Every structure is written in structure tokens, then in C-alpha cells.
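so the lab meeting is tmrw and i was supposed to have these ready like two days ago... anyway. pasting both below. for each one the top line is the aa sequence and the line under it is the C-alpha cells. i havent really looked at them closely yet so no promises
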Amino acid sequence: MCSRRPFIKSVSNRPPPPSGADTAPPPPSRQQNYNFQINLPYRQPDPDEARRRRSKIAELVFCCAVWAFTIALLALCYRRSPDFRADSLSVSDFNISSNNLVAGNWDLRFTVRNPNGRKTVINYEHIRAEIFYGKVPLAETVLKPFSQEPKNETSLEARFVANGTFVDDWIVERLNEDMEFNVRFYASVSLKAGWRRSEEQDFTVYCRNLKVTVDDGGGGGHGSSDSGGPKRCRIPYPWLFL
């Protein structure tokens, strides 16, 4: 009779794995190293490139210097035209006869200013003034020559006398209305800036729309300034005043 060998359960001393844990070993990690090495061809410095760069910088500096010199020269040589301002206009003894002949006296007060500095003196010669109604000349007068120092103002007066100027009927119809007169100045002007003196040139100034109220009562007219204060006169071509 064969005897059976008794079953003996082997007991291990290692603790059992925790519940829910994966007992399979993790897969080995795969590490990939990508090493790129780019070998660029060696470029030798071009000596002409540095020379061209220096040439461009020199041209830019030269152009800036020319512009700065031009602006400084214009600022030094530029001369501003004088300022003319009509302060008031009055008329007295204004009368128009039956055959449309105008007689009257106009007194114009005006101011001339020299806006220039740097020892710029303005000389006025051969000054003539003429007064108009519309485009119809009524009278003219001659003024004395004068000079102006830099930043100087000169107050002057021009007196016009008409002793029989013919006018049209439409002017006669406006005797009792506000009338607007125009004054034009003509002169020969020269500049003196330090040692430099310019040649004489013709100079024209327009003072437009100078209002007065004409009263024809009693055979003698009277007018008072009604222009709302001083009025600046206009110079047609101020850029020619150099």
C-alpha cells in the first residue's frame, strides 16, 4: 500500500502586495536624444561693405547740414513787410453839386509798424495816397518821407481835399446812407540791415471798406468814423518785400 506524502503549504516571508496595485513591472522608458549640429560656411567680412556704410552715413550728415544751413540763412535774411492799420476816417464839408461835382475833406489817421528786428530800418520815399468811393477816385495827397527803426510804430495823418470831382448818379443817390471809402498808398521802400542796404522798390497798400456816415444837412456834410475800430490794411504781395 502506497503512502501519500503530506501536502505542505509553503509560506513566504514577503508581505502580500497591496490590493488594487499592478504587480506587473512598468515598461522600460524609451529616451530619444536628437542632437543636430549645423555647420554654416564661414563668411569672410567684406571690406567694401564697411566702406559703403561709412559713405552713406557721411552723405546723410552732409544733407542734414545743408538743410540746417539753408533754414538758418533764410531766417537771417528774411524780412517781414510793414503793418499798416487805418485807425479812423472822418469827412467834413462834404457836398455834391447839381452837376455831380464832389467837394469835401477827408482825414485819415493810420499807423505804420516795422515788425522786423536785428537793426532793420525801413525807409519810405515818394509817398502818395488816394481815396476812392468804390473804384471812383475822389482825391489824392502827398505825404512826407519817413524812416522806421526796428519794432517801431509811427502814427500819421493823411488829409484829402476834393474841389470838384465828377461822380455818377448812383453815388449821389447814396448821400444819406453809410458810405464806404477805400484808400490806396503808393511808396518807394528800401531796407537797411546793418551794412547791407536794399534797392528801392515800389510798395502798395490797400485800406478797404472804411465806413463813414455822411450828413448833407445845411449844405455842408459831416462824417464820423463808423468802421467799428481800427482796420488792418492789406499788402498785395508781401513776399516781394525782401
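ok protien two:
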Amino acid sequence: MSFTLRWGILATGWIAETFSKDLLTNPATRDVSDVAHRIVAVSSSRDAQKARDFLTKIDGPQEAKTYGSYAELVADPDVDIIYVATPHSHHFQNAMLALRAGKHVLCEKALTVTAEQARRLVATAREKNLFFMEAVWTRYQPLSLKVRELVQAGEIGTVSRVTADLSFNNDQLVPWVTKANQPKRDAAVEPAAEEKPDETWHRYYHLYKEGELDADVQAVGGVVLESGYERDNYWWAICSRGPDER
């Protein structure tokens, strides 16, 4: 039997829009049947009209309540959990506001700006027996789950170093400008020196085709243990060195 989790959205910016649209997606499309999500309230920091505009923009439920202050949102008895989507500098105060009001909290990353703030939030959540989590979605992707499974089973040996990259749907050159260090001088007594030009580098982002990443691994003598495609538009491969490279 499924249950419905009733969400309150705290803030109306771009990341809140992206999250809310995903939240409104039928869980059955991800083979999930034991939970449903419903947005029951949205709050802007000081203007309820912005909250109403937000609901229209995400094609959200028009019966959802809208507020012009976060205090009103966390006081709503129909809200089970608060999604905090404010700037990083405000995460601590907004998440603490929700926890003290007895609400579960999913807070955007970065969780806080100091370790002490994070410890205080965790302590408050434990004291009140509330769910509290940083929104690190990659932790629950199939790739992440498979990597943990392989590491725990010892399939790839002892892990001594990890390098992780987040990839996007790009296939282009992106300029990277490094500012030149200009010579120091006393402007009052020294003539102006010729300034060094800034240097522009280009990073190449490549959009892989199916099977291309596997072929690259094999071309350098590697062995593909498992590979696949994530719904967020990137290919992945778990690999090991080939027998001749050990």
C-alpha cells in the first residue's frame, strides 16, 4: 500500500522549479509504487504572488496553498516535509526553522556553510526524531549503488583513490581564461609597464555515443566490468586494468 508525502516548497528559484517538476512526475515511471508525492504548499520569502506564479510555471496543483513568508509555510499542518531551495547562506536558518516546527527536511546542497551549522541541524533532527537530508541525488543513482556493491564485495580490490566527474549533455569547446599576473610597480614613480595578456584555453566536452566509452576503455587495454546509460544523459562504465596492465 502506498502513502502520500505532502511537500512544502521553500523558495521559488530555478533549482526549486527543477526539483518540483521532477517531484510531480509519476513515481511509476521509475518502477516505484509504495509512495506518491504531492505539493501542497509553496512559499516565497516575502511575496505570495511569486509563489502563485511558481505553481503556474511548474504546472503544479492550483489548489496548493501559497505563502509570502517561510514562517507561514512551516506552520502549515498539512505539510509533512519541507524542501529548502534558498541560497547556501540561508540553508541553516531555513532548515532550522522547519525542523523546529516539527517538519522533515530535504535541504539543497551545499547543506550549510560551516561544519558547526551542519552538526546543529543534525542534532536538532535527532532530538525531534525527524528525517533530515542533504539533496545529493547522485547517491541513489543506479551507478552509485552498483559501485558501492562492487566495492563492498571486493570485486575491484582495495580502493585507494577515487576520481568522480559529473557530466552534462555537451559536445563543444568551452573557453577557460586564466588571468595573467601583472608586474607590480609604484605608480607614482615608475612608468606604466606593458601588461601581459590573459591566456585563453579551451576544454573539449564530448557527447558519447552508445558503445563508444566501452571501446575507449578496451582500446587502452582495460576490461569493462559493467556499463550503462543514466536517465540524466550520460554513459558510465566500471572497469579494471587488463591482465597485461596489472
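from a quick look at the 2nd one: Helices lie at 14-23, 48-57, 70-74, 91-100, 115-127, 142-152, 212-219. The chain has two domains: 3-142, 197-245. will dig more after coffe
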